[in-house]
User: Which sequence fits this backbone?
């Protein structure tokens, strides 16, 4: 009798971190498996640790090797941390992509806005629908989240059903789109769910996430009570929040001006797909200055402090069309993603200095999370009754707390894994059975670099300690043709005694050359290495830092 196929799971991103989501499911044996990928997202670079890096993406080298066995890529929803890497990485995979209508339309608009984006076909699956992808039958189950058409995926296989929740919450009164489909989730629980792969983002927070309807009421009250101009910033993809802002503007007899390309793109897609039906038309930025102060509301990008986004430019008073003055108001209808605190704080401070009133989620209920708190996690477990729960989409603390909650809720088996772990889900006892290659890719301008990239490592070092450049011209006999050229970048002008670093480094270069035997002076590589060591040592002696040093030796 043939052994049944094993069902395995491996996260390649999004576990032990928030962002850069990529999960893969395999069906077969260890010699031959069919693979299904779920989501392909990005996280964002940190200028302090990764200067010049715009985006971070999961390493897909394993899927590249398994490309002929990769049946498809399924998208749970259209947030950047779940679909933002597709344009860059899909050409390495060229597998079919499956998504519902709004996600597909937003992806198409994203491709249209990107220079030289490849043509990437997407198969549209109806919300609540099912599609066969190789040996996997994937069902799209509607869940509430902060973007239209978020879906949990019920992955039906011969080895059992896996529920991959994606990002979700329980919102009984969503202002737009479907509520989480409790009925279908309960039905799956009765059928028998082998494993629940679940969102852990808010596993540390008690209770339940408030509803979008409560936020909508708060925004109406704030906009109606405002005296001057009002600007609202939120995640562009949160169409429910965009609708709430539009409703508030209408209630206060204000025109909505949309500011920022990302917001314009989402609004256009939301109108095309029917999610802003009945919502008034919005105005373009050039109209803003011609409207009375109490008759305008600017809906802006830039809630995360992005330096090129609309709100940062407004706060710096360098936006060509939008200005704010004393007595105006800005509502941050968003939460600050960890790592963005400094950038957001800088914008808030600039606005306050201009006399603008700033309202954040610390002041009023102007934002709610799209992720489940602890009572909602317990509800999901009680509906689905999984045999196994694996926490994902969270940092170590979130995963730990989700696992602890699941054990307390009576889940028979709970397993915490890391990116790259290969987990056997069934049949038989689940567990970590191996490892697959995982890691990070950095988008550096238009180039993708791996985490060991020399450019990334050296740029980080240069950001910390500058760089020294030395050019030396030597004769074939090992004599200097002219004085060495020294150029110091990002290094202080003088040491504590007031001596210039240019002179200190020049003297070190000269004394090193003069102190070398003629044979070493005739060897360009040996000479360059001796000078490099001497320059780094003398700068360290006077400054306490060792900058990179590049030495060019020209033999004439």
Assistant:
């Amino acid at each position: 009798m043939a052994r049944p196929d094993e069902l395995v799971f491996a996260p390649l991103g999004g576990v032990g971190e928030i962002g850069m989501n990529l999960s893969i499911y395999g069906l077969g044996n260890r010699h031959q498996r069919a693979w299904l990928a779920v989501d392909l997202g990005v996280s964002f670079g940190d200028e302090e640790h990764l200067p010049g890096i715009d985006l971070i993406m999961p390493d897909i080298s394993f899927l590249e090797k398994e490309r002929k066995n990769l049946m498809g890529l399924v998208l749970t929803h259209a947030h950047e941390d779940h679909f933002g890497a597709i344009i860059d990485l899909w050409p390495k995979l060229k597998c079919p992509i499956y998504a519902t209508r709004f996600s597909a339309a937003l992806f198409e608009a994203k491709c249209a806005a990107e220079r030289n984006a490849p043509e990437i076909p997407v198969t549209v699956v109806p919300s609540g629908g099912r599609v066969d992808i190789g040996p996997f039958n994937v069902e799209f189950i509607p869940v509430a989240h902060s973007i239209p058409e978020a879906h949990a995926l019920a992955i039906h296989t011969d080895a059992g059903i896996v529920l991959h929740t994606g990002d979700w919450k329980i919102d009984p009164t969503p202002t737009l789109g479907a509520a989480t489909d409790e009925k279908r989730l309960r039905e799956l629980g009765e059928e028998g769910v082998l494993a629940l792969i679940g969102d852990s983002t808010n596993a540390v927070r008690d209770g339940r996430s408030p509803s979008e309807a409560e936020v909508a009421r708060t925004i109406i009250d704030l906009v109606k009570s405002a005296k001057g101009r009002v600007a609202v910033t939120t995640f562009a993809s949160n169409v429910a929040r965009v609708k709430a802002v539009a409703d508030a503007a209408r209630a206060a007899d204000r025109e909505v001006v949309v500011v920022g390309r990302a917001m314009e793109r989402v609004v256009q897609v939301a109108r095309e797909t029917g999610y802003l039906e009945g919502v008034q038309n919005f105005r373009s930025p050039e109209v803003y200055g011609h409207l009375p102060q109490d008759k305008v509301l600017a809906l802006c990008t830039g809630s995360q402090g992005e330096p090129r986004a609309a709100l940062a430019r407004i706060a710096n008073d360098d936006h060509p069309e939008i200005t704010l003055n004393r007595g105006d108001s800005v509502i941050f209808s968003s939460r600050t993603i960890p790592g963005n605190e400094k950038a957001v704080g800088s914008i808030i401070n600039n606005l306050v200095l201009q006399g603008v009133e700033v309202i954040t989620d610390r002041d009023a209920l102007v934002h709610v999370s799209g992720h489940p708190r602890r009572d909602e996690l317990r509800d999901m477990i009680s509906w689905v009754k999984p045999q196994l729960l694996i926490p994902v989409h969270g940092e170590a603390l979130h995963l730990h707390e989700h696992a602890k909650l699941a054990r307390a809720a009576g889940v028979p088996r709970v397993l915490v894994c890391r990116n790259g772990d290969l987990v056997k889900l069934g049949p038989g006892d689940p567990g970590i059975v191996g490892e697959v290659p995982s890691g990070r890719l950095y988008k550096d301008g238009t180039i993708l670099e791996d985490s060991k990239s020399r450019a990334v490592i050296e740029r980080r070092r240069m950001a910390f300690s500058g760089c020294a450049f030395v050019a030396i011209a030597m004769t074939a006999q090992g004599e200097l043709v002219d004085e060495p050229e020294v150029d110091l970048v990002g290094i202080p002008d003088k040491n504590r005694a007031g001596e210039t670093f240019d002179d200190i480094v020049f003297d070190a270069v000269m004394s090193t050359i003069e102190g070398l035997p003629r044979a070493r002076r005739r060897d360009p590589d040996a000479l360059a290495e001796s000078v490099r060591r001497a320059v780094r040592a003398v700068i360290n002696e006077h400054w306490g830092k060792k900058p990179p040093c590049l030495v060019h030796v020209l033999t004439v």
